[in-house]
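Students often ask why we bother predicting the structure of a whole assembly rather than each chain alone. The short answer is interfaces. A chain on its own may look different once its partners are present, and contacts between molecules only exist in the joint model. In this exercise we take two input lines together and write out one structure for the complete complex. Read the inputs first and try to guess which parts will touch.
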Amino acid sequence: MKRWPVHWLLLAPALLFVGAMALFPLGYSLILSFREWKLAKTSVVGEFVGLQNYVDLLTDDPDFFEALRATCIFVTADVLVTVAVSLGAALLLHRAGRLNSLARTLLILPFVMSPALIGISFRFFLNAEYGVLASAVAAVFPSMKDTVWLADSTLAMIAVVASDVWHWAPYMTLMILGGLASIPSETQEAARVDGAGSWAVFRDITWPQLMPVVAVVMVLKTVFALKAFDTIFTLTSGGPGNATKTLAYFVYEQGFNYYDMGYAAASAYVLTAILLVLAGFYLRLVFGKAR
Amino acid sequence: MKRRDILQSTVAGMGGAMAPWAFAQNVGALKPGKPYAGTEINLLTVVAPQFRAHEAKLAEFEALTGIKVKYQYVPFPSTREKLTAELVGQSAQYDVLSVMDVWGPSLYNLFEPLNGMLAEKKMDLESRYPYAHLRASRDGNGNGKNILGFPIRGHVQLMFYRKDVFDRLGLKAPNTWDEMVEAGKVISGKTDMAGVAMYYGKTAGQNLMIWFNYLWGMGGELLDAKGQPVFNSPAGVEATQAYIDVLLKHKVAPAASASFNETDAVNSVAQGKSAMVPVWWWRYASLVDPKVSTLKPEQVAFAPLPSMPGKPNTTYTNTWFYGINKHSKKKAAAMEFLTWLSHPDIERSVLLDRSMNEVVAMQTKNLLDGDVNVRYKGMHVFAAQALKGAKGTPLFSQWPQVSDVLEASISELVAGKARVKPTLDDAAARVRRIMRA
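Now the answer. The structure tokens for the assembled complex follow.
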């Protein structure tokens, strides 16, 4: 008796599940992106329009380019700050000690909070009348006393980035801590015996071995930043103006505010393409060198 | 003559003026013999104290018909997505759905026209509801022949102000927007309060709700007869400038107004930080609720929304309706429920329930009710008058996109880095593109 049918039989439930939950929606949304379907006009999927949705998006939609610009600023700042904060925190917490163990345990708390709740909380924190954070900043920098954070495009972007960093940095710190733990301590000790200082040990011993982990952190954070929606929705609603409206928010608006499902699907695929290109670039940059 | 007598005579006078249509109404009857006993219908509705009060009365409906009704509440920000999911899924999970007027044109496909069932029950909604509310439940952008639901919750705008502060400073409630600014200057000069809490931040188009009054008051319009944007006309530019000047030039609004939404502005007054707020009437409940406000009812008074000097008052309505899901398998039972729920006595009992301050009245009979007006100091008589000339929210299927463009423009303008004319011109160009698509 051949064994292959048994293999397929055993795999079938998992394949069916993946097919129904992932492949079907992906395929269906790809088909939708080539069709016109304005839900406000009809509940039936409309005619095939070829690449028209993509052409409109890339040539005739100023909102898309504004969202693209906001996304570039947000993702760049968010990824760099998150990685820097996580790396710094991980290096500080890498040493053994009771306090560090407690800190590591507490690190998980921001990560388990709902992003929507974080957005609402930051909105309160930054309220110009009674916000704790706004008052604290004003106490340190008196010139910022009457600053309305969420009404200024630059400050609103800083607020969005800060809230996302607060959410993700602890989790990324734990990932980097895992990476640090896997680096053999003997090499670092040997370098110190040879007279290397802390910076030299980090630069020449720790960093090269940690880089693959940091690369994974960067890839993951880029993906999460590109998908960020809840915090932006509850904190700024994309404002002031469209200063913090990212591509994920743009896609949401097309589908759920404007009921233009074909256009929303095309926008989502453009976002996915950007995401895949960036992920590929990162992975090639880091793991390509390793080969 | 006591205040109660004065109010009741005013109401009686208005009732006479509005006769014969005001009270000659057929509210429809439930079908005899409980033909739908044992049926369970599901209702999806936005969160509102008014609806919780309805839910508390369901035992009465079940006793009359044998129909069970299950309420499922959705917070306002999620309501539209939930309705969209129903529209896409074409499911029969909910039999009755609540929808806000501006969403209506995008969601007509979700609702069953009620004309046949209304005719069968000899129900005449036109005699019961002000046109400003009823248009929201008609298809064809408010002008169609099909009625898609019963207006259930609706609002007019009022200027709420701190009566104690105004009395102490010898101020009168403002009749014009300029008077509002002048009163605001006196208040911010002589107290530690801001004059008026405005809301210019981005939240579901809330920063357009007062802007519309400036626009219309100045003689401007949103779109022309061909559906093209004209809000960037000289009148529109002047109106928008006056609207943002309340904060940027006159500085009578708290600085935080630049990012306030409607709730933030109401909270500013409730916390004693601002003396006025132009807002929907239902906010009265939170202004005088001791759980969320520092104010007592005698400290809060209301006046009509100000107008432009020498121009008539403009006001604006917002309406929710309950309609029957086109895919429901229990349409007849759902209609029985709506027949019962829309009886004026149900609405009246909520209005007079002393355990809450729910001011929302939709039916003309209740707007003119003596006891209701005594309880709310004549607010409803005023609302009935205002509703006769009120403009409604613009109804067209592209409104959500247009609203987003306009609210982003207002939000950008109050950041103080953009000028009105170019910003409105840019918004008009975007709106033209939206209307073309």
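Check your guess against this: The two ends of chain A are 43 Å apart (CA to CA).
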